[in-house]
């Protein structure tokens, strides 16, 4: 099994397709379509050269680190061309406010589009890219990151859109930052560049989920390799079981998408889909989402719930399907996958556990739910 | 008739009561309760000394000039203590962005609370206060100023609230600045400090409505003086007729408030009131408002319409009544008053004429409407 060097590697163009596929998987349905991000990263790499991806430990403790991401509704992001100019402008606005130029770029979210956007920004800026992110998956709101669990402030935060509009937020807490930024993002066209949680290298080392860019690549490559051998799910599951974070996993349901409710509201993609079982027993799996898949349930039996990952994949190719890519009639397999252990602490669950999404049930680890099933 | 020196005067504590009353009149129902502003200004003058108010011509062409105002729904502003700290913090945020410390403070709006807020800020900062503003009255939205008519950009714009939250907006045009700021203001508690339209002295000279702080004082004093003599309306009208801007004026209706619809929506105080005539003929005047009184009408006959001022005053004392001060059963006189000529240009009417408020009729000068009546 190919592994990237843990001491750093260049994000060359040949890695992008697998990295994007793995990021789509880790997006758990959200984070935007990573293939748009891959195209943007490819263009940046061809123009500026491959950025060097390093573990956080390679960054100086005092080095200013800036996150790079797109923010908005994935349904809108797929209708707009993703430019890294907006993300760069957001970082530049934040650098002016902080009075410190960036020494490294840190992904905020490894799931989906936002895994690849920092690759493009790091290439263009000629800065090291940290092999880590703030969640090891995707989440719909800015405060839902391990940085916040660790006490890092979302503010100051900068958002910028394709019209050159940019706004700098200094809110009283992380949820207020999210609320203020979300109001602006809707006003700005529901897809913008954002940089937030400005921090130093020491903080990045302490508060990030590490190695996730490498893991995204590994996941994507396991699917590609398996596809060539005709067993993408076996290959994917074998790779996941070899990782530190995603090793509790399994296929929890196989069937056909028979019901699809999807709407863009409050700047999010909201809704639910139903999958009718292949078993012929008439059982249905309901998956609800807010940008990301939040919970998979048969009747009142939960099979996977945030922050663990619920992933929907094409039943033949194991291609990850995002919330905006769901279609009536698709044949799918639904997987439950454990999140990074740091994401399951009490403080972490307060920020992005079931109740943070309005779900009235406690978090239970996917390994318990699948065994119980 | 007492007049302040046109070459500059100190805004001493003894001027505040009349200045606030005149500002309430020019607020045309909006701009917030000026007596809150007067209390704030009084405290600042007692602590820091009286600020010197000068004509714009006394300011250097290159001197950085910053506006100072509160923004939000007047209905909320009367429920919160007005602190100048929020306005100061907004100016400070804008000074950092512009990289230029303020050399003078300019009122954005002379009507209501926002006439007195700059007095307090100028006192505390020890800066000259320019005897001018951007409308010679009050208006509900940021882009509705002569600065905008003259091509000055609302952005960068800073808003700050009592929790120390501050956000800096850079929007693509003035209406987009208003929309973005309004979203944030609602999020921030519907009453915040704002500084916008950063400009130089030359621009202030060219684009402001001049002499309006002096005029506010003069109007307030005419009411007070007249009240002591028992003829506040005669005194007020005589003074208005002696001014350059407000000289076309008259009482257009006298009666009793019999219907009152007032709601806080989209960050504004919206609604309409009806006044039943004293004449015993059953005729009713309808006055509609968005923070400010926009139009006075009997049946389908308009008697005053924006940007001309519709003012509602207590029938005995000529005390101006704001939209949030309207009460069922009040005996009132309603006045129509001409606005500054610069406010009636085609470009100005596009920004704050009837159609800018969704009213489907052209602007007609109050002098034509009153004569016609």
CATH class of the largest domain in chain A: Alpha Beta
Helix share bin of chain A: 25-40%
In this structure, how is the largest beta sheet of chain A organized? 7 strands, antiparallel
Low-confidence stretches of chain A: none
Nearest-integer average pLDDT of chain A? 93
Pair of chains with the largest interface and how many residues each contributes = A-B, 18 and 18 residues
* H/E topology pattern of chain A: EHHEEHHEHEEHEEHEEHEHHEEEEEEEHH
Name its key features.
homodimer, 373 residues, alpha+beta, CV3147-like fold, CV3147-like, 2 domains, 7-stranded antiparallel sheet, 6-stranded mixed sheet, 12 helices, 34% helix, globular
Helices and strands, with pairings:
The structure is a homodimer of 373-residue chains.
Chain A: E1 9-10, H1 16-26, H2 34-48, E2 52-54, E3 64-72, H3 74-77, H4 84-98, E4 104-107, H5 113-125, E5 129-130, E6 132-133, H6 146-149, E7 157-160, E8 166-170, H7 174-188, E9 191-195, E10 199-200, H8 201-207, E11 209-210, H9 212-229, H10 232-241, E12 249-265, E13 268-277, E14 284-290, E15 292-298, E16 301-305, E17 309-314, E18 331-337, H11 346-352, H12 366-372
Parallel strand pairs in A: 2-5, 3-4
Antiparallel strand pairs in A: 1-2, 3-9, 3-10, 6-11, 7-8, 7-9, 12-13, 12-18, 13-14, 14-15, 15-16, 17-18
Helix pairs in contact in A: 1-2, 1-5, 1-9, 2-5, 9-10
């Amino acid at each position: 099994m190919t592994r990237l060097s843990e001491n750093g590697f260049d994000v060359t163009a040949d890695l992008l397709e697998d990295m994007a596929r793995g990021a789509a998987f880790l997006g758990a349905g959200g984070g935007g379509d990573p293939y748009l991000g891959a195209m943007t990263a490819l263009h940046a790499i061809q123009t500026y050269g491959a950025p060097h991806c390093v573990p956080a430990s390679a960054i100086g403790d005092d080095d200013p680190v800036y996150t790079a991401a797109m923010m908005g509704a994935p349904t809108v992001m797929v209708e707009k061309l993703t430019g890294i100019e907006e993300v760069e402008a957001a970082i530049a606005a934040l650098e002016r406010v902080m009075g410190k130029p960036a020494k490294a770029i840190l992904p905020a979210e490894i799931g989906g589009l936002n895994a690849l956007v920092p690759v493009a920004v790091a290439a263009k800026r000629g800065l090291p890219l940290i092999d880590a992110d703030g969640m090891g998956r995707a989440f719909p709101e800015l405060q839902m990151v391990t940085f916040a669990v660790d006490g890092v402030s979302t503010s100051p935060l900068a958002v910028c859109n394709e019209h050159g509009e940019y706004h700098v937020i200094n809110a009283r807490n992380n949820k207020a930052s999210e609320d203020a930024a979300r109001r602006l993002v809707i006003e700005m066209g529901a897809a913008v560049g954002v940089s937030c949680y400005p921090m130093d290298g020491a903080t990045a080392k302490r508060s990030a989920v590490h190695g996730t860019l490498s893991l995204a690549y590994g996941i994507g490559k396991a699917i590609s390799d398996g596809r060539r051998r005709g067993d993408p799910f076996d290959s994917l599951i074998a790779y996941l079981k070899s990782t530190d974070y995603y090793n509790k996993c399994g296929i929890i349901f196989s069937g056909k998408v028979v019901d699809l409710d999807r709407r863009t509201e409050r700047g999010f993609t909201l809704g639910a889909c139903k999958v009718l079982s292949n078993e012929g027993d008439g059982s249905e799996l309901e998956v609800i989402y807010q940008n990301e898949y939040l919970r998979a349930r048969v009747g009142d039996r939960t099979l996977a719930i945030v922050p663990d990952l619920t992933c929907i994949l094409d039943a033949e190719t194991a291609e990850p399907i995002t919330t905006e890519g769901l279609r009536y009639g698709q044949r799918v397999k639904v997987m439950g996958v454990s999140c990074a252990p740091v994401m399951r602490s009490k403080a972490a669950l307060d920020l992005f556990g079931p109740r943070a999404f309005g779900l009235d049930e406690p978090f239970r680890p996917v390994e318990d739910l699948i065994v119980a099933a």
